[in-house]
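Dear U.,

For the methods section draft, I wanted the exact inputs and outputs in one place so we can describe them consistently. I've listed the two proteins in the order they'll appear in the manuscript figures. Please don't edit the token lines directly; just add comments below if something needs changing.

First protein:
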Amino acid sequence: MHGLTGSAIAIYGISAVNLAEWMNVGIGLLWSILGTFILAYIITKLLKKFLNKIQDKIISKFQIVGMCAMSFMHGAQDGQKFIGILIIYNYILKGLSVPDFIIPMEHIYTILFTAAVMFIGVSIGGEKIVQNIGSNMTNLNKKQALCSDISTSATLLIASLNGIPVSTTHVKTMSIIGVGKSEKNAVSKKSVIQIIKAWVLTFPVCLVLSYVLAKAFMNF
């Protein structure tokens, strides 16, 4: 979003920024952080007694379902952003005006391409991110991890159904913190601060970098 905005400003000027849509981004950021934390905290409290009665072997099977749900919602959120940009770019290359309503299934190859790229990207760098967030920040047992999966999927589902763009990384991170706090687990302040710094720096860096690159490519 920030990279797209930086490029738009470089090409069309500040008037290209749609403040109404940026309000949705702000709502999404608030929901990602505060909404997810509250939802994860409550879900963990509600499911604690029920999950304590279930054996870990069965919990492991539930975790597979939870991970599938998260993968699906990951595509429903982050995937749509990339698909939308690629479709718009395709219309521009063909010299066509971008329609107000786009039927996704008409662009099945774009959808499959985006899914493949996301799969490859996660398989390359996903493990280190998972270790940093899942292992270094706080320790969750299988039942607590399942609560985190449920919270993440629920948060992303609510956001997607309402057309609110959110960051799946923000949501997953806050769900882990919410579960950890609900269970009174120790949460690494150092890891949390590092993640927050990365979030804060990402926005301006992406905007400025995309602005500079767009200006540079326009000169060729």
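Second protein (the one for the lower panel):
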Amino acid sequence: MLAMSVPLTARAFPQFGAQHFIILGVWLAGCVAAALLGRRLRGRRAERAFRWCLGAVLLAFAVPKQLGDLVASGWDIGTSLPFQLCDLAWMVGAWALFTCGWRSRSLLYFWGLTLTTQAILTPSLEQAWPDPLFVGFWGMHLVTVWAAVYLCIGLGLGPRWRGFAWSALCTAVWVAVMMAFNAAAGTNYGFVSHKPPEASLLDFLGPWPFYVLAEAAIAASVWALITWPWVMAGRRRTAAADRDAGRSARARQRTGR
């Protein structure tokens, strides 16, 4: 679920090599652009059109990538199905861009900014440029994070405690479903059924199921921490609106006299 689920051994795509640093630079530049553009488009008619265009771009990367995983010659029931939270994050991201609903925005905020970001920092990728799956992998992950930044930071639509609770519930349901599927199919999606064979940060969290519980506690703590600023900002806006309403009421009373 977390970065600690990522094996510590080397991948086919070299982490922090030249290509990876270029991609990280594009990712960071895109995050800044998404935040600034969201602030610029707040309240404008063009905002909805841009959201839909960004959603279409996300689908254009993610759908072919997922289909490629399903039909690739190396298809494996244990790795090819779109059951990882990063796979679900892009689906939630597309829905959030098209609908702007608080439930999908909240899931995108937590899954996109914490889990998809970790996949960008520590990618598990076998293909290299210009393989279509390479392009799809990076396009899917980058645009998912950019969508979260645009909606939640650019437009200021960050989650409140109900969004935190909803996302925690959905994640818990995912863990339970994956445990059941893993038991039936002999897979290990999300590493929720046992640790990966390679050395990983999960080794520091004890045996199953204690490492799963530790991951859940860490995720809940981080998510609560990144929810708190939005809650406080909402309280400040409410207090300011109450003060303005009080001033207006007093002004009307004086005028009525």
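Candidate sentences for the figure legend, describing the second protein: The first helix runs from residue 18 to 41. Confidence is low (pLDDT under 50) at residues 6-10.

Thanks,
Y.
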